[in-house]
Amino acid sequence: MTRETATIDPKEAAHFGTMAADWWNPHGSSAMLHKLNPVRLRYIRAAIDRHWPGDAQGFRPLTGRRALDVGCGAGLLAEPLARLGATVTGLDAAPENIAAAHAHAQGQRLAIDYRATPVEDMADSGFDLVTSMEVIEHVADPAAFIAALAAKLAPDGLMIFSTPNRTPLSRLAMITIGESIGGIPKGTHDWHKFITPDELTALLDQAGLEVTDSIGLSFDPTRGFTLSANDAINYLLTARHKV
């Protein structure tokens, strides 16, 4: 495998590429991501307001800042980041997803720089915000992936992850149930590639980053997905360069 594709798993890219045309359908193959997106955005907004104190009630807290969304799919997170004021670059391993992202952003009159480019092959750096949601569990080399993300982060930048935990409950919820009756396409996950918070923290430490916040993402039958102290299924994590 060449350096340019060191973190990309071709089978994973092909799997997600088949979902491109249906990505923006809230009842389609990406329905679970649509349900996850609002709570992820609430977490990201809170992290932004903590990291760059300002007008917590403002609609565009990322004005004047650059954001990089790695593993952007068809733009479910990249578009809200643009609406928050950021100049957004979105990367994805599947050209089909990038094509769908371009088309949808044009329809929304959003200027987002989408590229079917591995993060380690991108020359740009100095991004104020780097996000990677439900991606690291799909890459070929998590340590190399995090090192590449760290290299793109500005000195005072903020990095935010979302990923499944590797627990018996996550196997049950996301694979046994989720990929059979829960709206997640079959073959989406390999439980053995899930990463625990301690493992992710260690990888970030190796890349010169420190964790500043971590919280679980749980499912409540009455309220849907919520931020929670319970990280047994999924969690969100914020990191920055060590000071």
What would your notes on this structure say?
The relative contact order is 0.15. The protein has an eight-stranded mixed β-sheet. The protein is α/β, with parallel strands linked by helices. 33% of the residues lie in helices and 23% in strands.
Salient structural properties:
eight-stranded mixed β-sheet; 243 residues; alpha/beta
In short:
By secondary structure, this protein is an alpha/beta fold. It has helices spanning 10-17, 31-51, 78-83, 95-107, 142-152, 168-177, 197-206; strands spanning 66-70, 87-91, 113-115, 127-133, 153-164, 209-220, 224-228, 234-241. Strand 1, helix 3 (78-83) and strand 2 form a beta-alpha-beta unit.
> Percent helix among the residues?
25-40%
Rg calc: 17 Å
- Mean pLDDT, nearest integer? 87
In the predicted model, the low-confidence regions spanning at least 5 consecutive residues are 1-5
- Tell me how many strands there are: 8
Biggest beta sheet attributes? 8 strands, mixed
- In percent, how much strand structure appears in the residues? 15-25%
Which series of helices and strands comes N to C? HHEHEHEEHEHHEEE
User: Number of DSSP helices?
Assistant: 7
Indicate the topology.
Elements: H1 10-17, H2 31-51, E1 66-70, H3 78-83, E2 87-91, H4 95-107, E3 113-115, E4 127-133, H5 142-152, E5 153-164, H6 168-177, H7 197-206, E6 209-220, E7 224-228, E8 234-241
Parallel strand pairs: 1-2, 1-4, 2-3, 4-5
Antiparallel strand pairs: 5-8, 6-7, 6-8
